[in-house]
Amino acid sequence: MRSLKGAGLLLCWVLASPAVEGRELVIGGIPEVPWRYWDEGVQSFAGLDVDVVGHILGRLDVPHRIVLEPSSARLENNWRQNNTYDMVFTYSYKEARTPYLLYANESHIHIAQHFFILKKNLAHLHYDTLEDLRGMRVGATQGFSYTPAFWAAVDAGLWRTDVVTQNKLQIHKLLHERIDIVPLPTMATLFEAQRGGYAARLAYLPKPLKSEPYYNTFVKSSDYPGLALIAERYDQELREMKRDGRLRAIYERYGVQQHYSF
């Protein structure tokens, strides 16, 4: 396992798993509450994604460990160019990823992105289309999936785009008024705002930038034995979790509400 010490090294911890023959299945991701993060209180990983995958792989008797990268760009570089991972957490479907990643057939979550803004500035903005953001300082995170229309607006110079490599930097910049507005995952951002004590300062525009299903993925270049069969059994187990309420129970554990039915 890589060391936690040293600037620029991976954020990497081992998730407890049963001792069985063969190597562990390695799962990559980026830290993002409430989906996947290191819980200092229990010295273990926590999060909705962690619990879903841990529950399924436990049922399949597949030992595993989790590696959290410091940025989405670094995560993507590793699954594109290296055999670092066997599985990658929680992506929306993008055709450009399919040469590298095998998507699960079953989505385990729908995630919306909204534009977040300081509440004090909300009354000054009428928002119906991206054109209404003309001239603003808009945050964006390298490697994150927004929409083609968003990037077309960036390319057209509709606004001043401030690009960073880590999503966690965005709220700090917004709260310190270094940017005016930023698209962020809605539930995760509100969850963090409540924990951080700054929820009263934030608002988000009512129309989502996007809302779509997200999937766990399997790395096509992985040499993990029987990975295709594991992917098939993952889908079967996730379907059962949707039917019998186990998935809903995990949502409730993290205070996540889903506004759709399975």
Q: What value does the average pLDDT take?
A: 87
| Rg measurement, Å | 19 Å
Count helical runs.
Answer: 8
Please provide the count of β strands: 13
Beta-strand content: 25-35%
What is the oligomeric state here? single chain
| Run of helices and strands | EEEEHEHEEEHEHEHEHEEHH
| Most strands sheet | 9 strands, mixed
Helix fraction by DSSP (H/I, runs of at least 4): 25-40%
What does this molecule look like?
The chain is globular, with a radius of gyration of 19 Å. The chain contains 8 helices and 13 strands. 30% of the residues lie in helices and 25% in strands. The model is unreliable at 1-20 (pLDDT under 50). Strands 1, 2, 5, 6, 7, 8, 11, 12 and 13 form a 9-stranded mixed beta sheet that branches. Strands 3-4 form a two-stranded antiparallel sheet. It has 262 residues and is α+β, with helices and mostly antiparallel strands. It has helices at 48-59, 72-81, 119-122, 148-155, 168-175, 186-196, 227-244, 246-253; strands at residues 11-13, 25-29, 37-39, 44-46, 64-68, 87-92, 101-103, 109-118, 137-141, 160-164, 181-185, 202-204, 210-219.
Features:
262 residues; alpha+beta; two-stranded antiparallel ribbon; 13 strands; 25% strand; disordered N terminus
